Amino acid sequence: MSSATLPWSYALRAKQGDFLYISAQIVEGTGSVTVTIAKGGDTFKTTTSSGLASIATASGSLEEWPRL
What global pTM score does this model have? Predict the structure, then answer.
């Protein structure tokens, strides 16, 4: 378990066919959390969840992503 100061981001190199997964959870208080997988400013997957203990998850295979 880890906590992050927001906004938070992480960059990695992925290639066509790789499977990507990210999730975030609200563990204290209320509000909303959004996770996004993007490439060069283009959004591949994004989701938002709201309320205490909510979890936002985005995932998918880069085979689904048009070659940019």
Answer: 0.77
For residues 48 and 32, the answer to whether their CB atoms sit within 8 Å is yes
- The H-or-E segment that residue 45 falls in is strand 42-50
Q: Which two tokens stand for residue 48?
A: 């938002």
* Per-residue pLDDT tens over the stretch 29-49: 888 999 999 887 889 899 999
**Domain ranges, ordered by start, for the chain:** 19-64
Contact 60, 37 (CB under 8 A): yes
Cβ contacts of 19 within 8 Å, gap of 6 or more = 59, 60, 61, 62
The sign of the dihedral angle between the CA atoms of 10, 59, 25, 32 is: positive
